[in-house]
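Sequence in, structure out. Go.
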Amino acid sequence: MKLIVCVIFMFISAKECDKKQLASENISEVMTTELAELKMQDRMKISYRAATRGFYLQIWIEGDSIKYTSDNTLKAISIHQIPIEEKEDLMKLIGTLDEKTLPDLVAPSTRHQFDGAAIATLEITNGEDSYRTVAFDHGNAPKSIALLVEKMLSIKTMFEKQ
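Output:
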């Protein structure tokens, strides 16, 4: 009888250990995924540039900071920490975007070709890979990146008002 109780106890203990092991494996998978996303965010650099005669704007987002300047010599650069909510919104917008399609985007208008608007480009660098859009009008980005460009400009404006 003692032998049967010991065998049953051993099976029950083994089942509980399996459950705990599965739970710890699931937690480690989630943590690994989150760490990979954080590493991707740290390696990711987003750059927006708009220029014409008498106007220059460049915005970089790297990690948790935003840098921007209206000085084409890049001597006067403002750097700020992006609030968590804004960063999350920005990452959601980037998550919906396929960077590989950036070079194939078509500009909705061509006013930049005759000085009717500033020439703008968006570049996303993720590790070794870099993707840049074709030139488009500042203020009239292609639909697939319009929300991302607007978000970058709104974050910059938020810090300029402070």
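Check: The chain has one domain: 44-161. Residues 26 and 102 are 35 Å apart (CA to CA).
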